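Data card: per-record layout.
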Amino acid sequence: MFTFVSNDDSLDWKNYGVENLINTVVNHKHLGNGSIILCHNGAKYTAQALDSIIKGLKEKGYEIVPISKLIYKKNYQMDHEGRQFSVGEEDKMENSKNMN
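The structure for this 100-residue chain is written out next.
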């Protein structure tokens, strides 16, 4: 089991509506490669907004990947926004081996 940190909070739990949720995620100031977006399965509008969020992210050039592709298990550093970065080639090889 591994702990990870989301760096883009969708604020879906505030129940501001579908359009607000889409805008919050797709235009989040911390959105970037390696972002982990926090959404809650019990929030009122998340399910309705999800298709549009995914479409908006893809239109901006982002790829949706499993969390396992974003988590390094060793030889990494974390930046101030919670993104992990590999500090060695050995970790990249082990991550790809463990994902198959």
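Known properties of this structure: The chain has three helices and four strands. The chain has one domain: 8-99.

See the next section for split statistics.
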